[in-house]
Amino acid sequence: MSTEHLLPEVAEILDAANEYRIEFCRQDRWVGYTAATKALDELDDLRNFPKNLRPNNILLVGGSGNGKSSILEYFANRHPILASSEGKPVVPVLKIEMPSKPDESEFWSLILWALGISHREGDRAAHKKRQAKSAMVNANVQMLALDEFNNVAEAGRATSDLLAAIRNLSNELRIPIVAAGTDKAINALNLDPQLKSRFEPIGLPRWRLNREYLGFLASYEQLLPLAKKSDLAQPEVAKALFAMAGDTVGQNVKLLRRAAAAAIETGSEQITVKLLAELNWTRADAWQTIAKAI
Ligand SMILES: Nc1ncnc2c1ncn2[C@@H]1O[C@H](COP(=O)(O)OP(=O)(O)O)[C@@H](O)[C@H]1O
Ligand SMILES: [Mg+2]
User: Of ligand 1's atoms, which has the minimum distance to the CA of residue 147?
Assistant: First the structure.
């Protein structure tokens, strides 16, 4: 049996029990598709930016399920926490998810929790701010990553306070910020033009049925422990996958996992157009069509 269609570590588990192989398909993997790799390079440039210059920040914008959080996660994991020569921690990238509603006090709490510092959540924002800033300096935080920045979009006093707090933090600590969110994150920055002028946007466009997409399918196939080669990048299969999963990495990954599980369960060991047609699958946008029709 040829296993050339798989990465060696994936080929190794071909003999494992079906349940194990299905579980393996469900685990998150990283595929470095072009837009993600470019974004990671930009984040590295940002991190290496000289501290004495005014940092330029990045806003990673894309639709829901288009890989924003995964990029931040991958980037943060690539720069894990270290200990300095004096035994002090160095946190290269501090990542938090913005509070679901704009709230400065909660923002400081999230930073403190992310640094593992217990504090009284009920304390005043000004107090927590001092605590958070000194904790960030102590932990040598070199870059701040703010996911779900779209949560900040609602106009109002609380939002202005939060945006001003972020602007001051970046000024005082002179560390670059990467924010990620849907197009609503742009609305959020529109509320603070001064902060906005320090951001450069990087878009994660919707996926199209192009060479990039085929490359992604070919890479992902190497990660699915199926005994037979599916050749996902061949036109008929790729077209069928794109028609079902649509234009986000999230839906494509979900569909590939579902299809691989079916290929294991049915014993076909291969993802084909026929197998895809028999899957119980609802396109993500079908929900919107249903909602509009009622
Ligand atoms: N580079 C990648 N390689 C493999 N799978 C990915 C990648 N990026 C995203 N995914 C898959 O897509 C899903 C949705 O991505 P996510 O980063 O959560 O999107 P967003 O934050 O833009 O809503 C993830 O849970 C993961 O399964
Ligand atoms: Mg996300």
Answer: 21
